[in-house]
Structures are given as C-alpha cells and as structure tokens.
C-alpha cells in the first residue's frame, strides 16, 4: 500500500473510531501542522470564513449520524471520535501565533479525565439521591421520577392529587452533566456545576423552574401555561421554544440565547424586558440597568450540549473557567493573563492534557498539571 493510501486509510479509520492511540495522535498532530501552514498564507478574514465552512461541514456530517445510547461504549466511542474529528481543524489562535512542534504540558501526576453523566437529586422530603453515573437521563412521570429504562428513583410522591407544589432539585457537580425530562415533556440539559429546581407537577396557570449555572431548554408548547425560568437577576417567559441560559453565580453577566420560538427576558435589576427573536442573545449585567441584545452564534451556544468546547474569540480566563468546571480542577495563574483571544474547537471527551496541549500549540502559554491544580504560565 502506498504512503498516500496508507494515510487515507488511517484517516478513514480515525473517523470511524478504529485508530490506535498512536495513530490518533499522528492524525491530529499532522492536521494541526497543516492548518498552521495554511493559516500563515491567508488573511484573518479568510481564515475565519474557512473555519466556519469547515465547522458547518463537520456539524452536518455529525448530525447525520444516528443518535444512540451512550451506554453502548463502542458506539459512543465512534460518535465521540466523530466529534473529536473537529479537532483536525481546531484551536487556531486569532492572531495566528506560531504553532509549536510538540506539547510542553507538564504532567506531575496522573492525567485528568473529562467530566461525565453524574448528578444528585434532592427530592421534596430532603432525601438526596446519587444518580446512576452514565445514565442517559431522568424523567418526571406522574408521582415518580425514573431513569430512561423506567426504573423508579427514590419513593413516588404519596399524595399525587395534592394541590401543594412539591419541589425537587437536580444538581450537577464540577465534572458532571445530566439531562431531565420534566412532567410537561420539557427537556433540559444541565451543564457542570449547575442546579435546576422544579416541581413534581406543574399546577396553576404557569410552569416555573429555577436555574443556577447553565442549561439548554427545549420547552414543550402549552399556550395556556407559560413556562418561566428564574435565574440570577432575570426571569424568562416562554410558550414553547429552544434556548440556552448561562447564569453562574460567580459571573457578573447572565446570557440567554434563543434558537427557536420566542422568549421574553425581564431584568430584576431594572424591571425592563425585551422579547428575543431566534438567533438573538440577551445579556444582563449584575446590578446594572438595561438589557443588551446581540447576535447569538448557534454553534457556540450548543457546543457544550453537543460534546465539545467552542472558543470564538474567547479570552484565556473564560476558557479556563470552562476547563475548571468540566474537569473539576483549580486554575492558578503564575502571572496576570494577557488579552489573548482564541478561536477553535476541542472535544469535551478528551483528557485535560489534550485540551491544554491544543492551547499551547497556538498560544505563547504553558501549563503544569499537579494533581487537581493547573498552573498557567504566560
């Protein structure tokens, strides 16, 4: 077999998830070097357009893949590698700094694995249940909360006919994510370090939940009962729509990006409100009046929910915040971060060293992993 055919065979097997670790490393390194060479020959504007075209192509290929259970390890690995194939074109520094030949990530101990499907459920009586790690989702079904296979979690509500709202809280830790289907059919994906407080049943004339952290919602349509999401400094009101809310307690801003339908965003700081259209994003700054509305990037909004990091002109501190939550680590800066920004994508299914190595390749920075501490140099 010729060298060209051999390379094509490896790349084809890489996309199917059949490569050995050595072959995987070769494919990713080779494509990163190729992209670096190309980036030196084209303008920033053309590079951004090329990246966007590649991203659209990859996402189209990804979404054409059938959805399967993540419990099937081999099938999930193939799907994960397809996401990882985005890494072939990933992490291009906005100012096109030179790509280094090899990683200088200093690993003082064992590498750190990515987050997984894990969460706790606090039911109405205060009982805390550790949910099955790796399970697809939980669902509210009448008086019970169940796993996808129908097995009941905890004890069903004793008096389902009661007019009293009984609340449960789904909590994901750092390094965890989970999905829940609420009693009305609304689907919610909860990102790491987040919580969702919801009633066992929606009573009265509205459906209301409370969010801390980040979640993606696909709200079941019910014109007679508006769906409300309360988060830090804002209230969202919808009838049936798809949107993402980022409302972490340690961050000053609350962001709501609308993908489908319509949503009314009200600020608790100024009592102002706006109605978002699909493709728009609202930003509310803690303690400030006014609501900023700008264009939302669908790929950026859905990146975490689809299994990858997407850095679109993102600064290092915001990137490392995501790394902290997903890998459950502490990030320490040896010196004050500069204003460098990054553009690129990395799969969330990779170990932390792979993510840090990708950042090192395109920026004048270095990382040291020591247990659960990540030190940033430069």
TrEMBL record:
<feature type="transmembrane region" description="Helical">
    <location>
        <begin position="75"/>
        <end position="94"/>
    </location>
</feature>
<keyword id="KW-0472">Membrane</keyword>
<feature type="domain" description="FecR protein">
    <location>
        <begin position="169"/>
        <end position="264"/>
    </location>
</feature>
<keyword id="KW-1133">Transmembrane helix</keyword>
<dbReference type="InterPro" id="IPR032508">
    <property type="entry name" value="FecR_C"/>
</dbReference>
<dbReference type="InterPro" id="IPR012373">
    <property type="entry name" value="Ferrdict_sens_TM"/>
</dbReference>
<keyword id="KW-0812">Transmembrane</keyword>
<feature type="domain" description="Protein FecR C-terminal">
    <location>
        <begin position="308"/>
        <end position="376"/>
    </location>
</feature>
<dbReference type="Pfam" id="PF04773">
    <property type="entry name" value="FecR"/>
</dbReference>
<dbReference type="InterPro" id="IPR006860">
    <property type="entry name" value="FecR"/>
</dbReference>
<protein>
    <submittedName>
        <fullName>FecR family protein</fullName>
    </submittedName>
</protein>
<dbReference type="Pfam" id="PF16344">
    <property type="entry name" value="FecR_C"/>
</dbReference>
């Amino acid at each position: 077999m010729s060298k060209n055919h051999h390379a094509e065979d490896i790349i084809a097997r890489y996309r199917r998830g059949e490569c050995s670790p050595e072959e995987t490393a070769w494919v990713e390194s080779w494509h990163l070097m190729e992209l670096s060479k190309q980036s030196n020959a084209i303008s920033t504007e053309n590079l951004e357009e090329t990246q966007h075209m590649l991203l659209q192509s990859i996402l189209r290929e990804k979404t054409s893949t059938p959805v399967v259970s993540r419990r099937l390890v081999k099938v999930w690995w193939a799907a994960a590698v397809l996401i990882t194939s985005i890494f072939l074109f990933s992490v291009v520094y906005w100012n096109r700094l030179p790509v280094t030949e090899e990683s200088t990530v200093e690993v003082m101990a064992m590498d750190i694995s990515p987050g997984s499907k894990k969460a706790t459920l606090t039911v109405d009586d205060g009982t805390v249940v550790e949910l099955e790690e790796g399970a697809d989702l939980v669902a509210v079904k009448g008086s019970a909360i169940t796993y996808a296979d129908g097995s009941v979690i905890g004890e069903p509500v004793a008096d389902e006919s009661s007019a009293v709202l009984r609340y449960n809280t789904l909590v994901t830790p750092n390094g965890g994510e989970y999905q829940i289907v609420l009693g009305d059919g609304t689907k919610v994906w909860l990102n790491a370090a987040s919580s969702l407080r919801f009633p066992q049943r929606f009573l009265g004339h509205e459906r209301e939940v409370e969010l801390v952290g980040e979640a993606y919602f696909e709200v079941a349509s019910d014109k007679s009962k508006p769906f409300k999401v309360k988060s830090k400094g804002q209230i969202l009101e919808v009838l049936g729509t798809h949107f993402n809310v980022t409302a972490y307690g340690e961050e000053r801003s609350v962001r709501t990006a609308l993908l489908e339908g319509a949503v009314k965003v009200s600020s608790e700081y100024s009592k102002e409100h706006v109605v978002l259209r699909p493709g728009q994003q609202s930003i509310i700054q803690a303690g400030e009046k006014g609501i900023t509305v700008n264009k939302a990037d669908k790929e950026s909004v859905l990146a975490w929910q689809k299994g990858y990091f997407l850095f679109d002109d993102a600064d290092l501190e915001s990137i490392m915040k995501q790394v902290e939550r997903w890998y459950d680590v502490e990030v320490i800066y040896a010196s004050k971060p500069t204003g460098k920004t990054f553009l690129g994508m990395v799969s969330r299914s990779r170990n932390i060293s792979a993510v840090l190595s990708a950042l090192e390749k395109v920026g004048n920075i270095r990382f040291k992993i020591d247990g659960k501490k990540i030190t940033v140099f430069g």
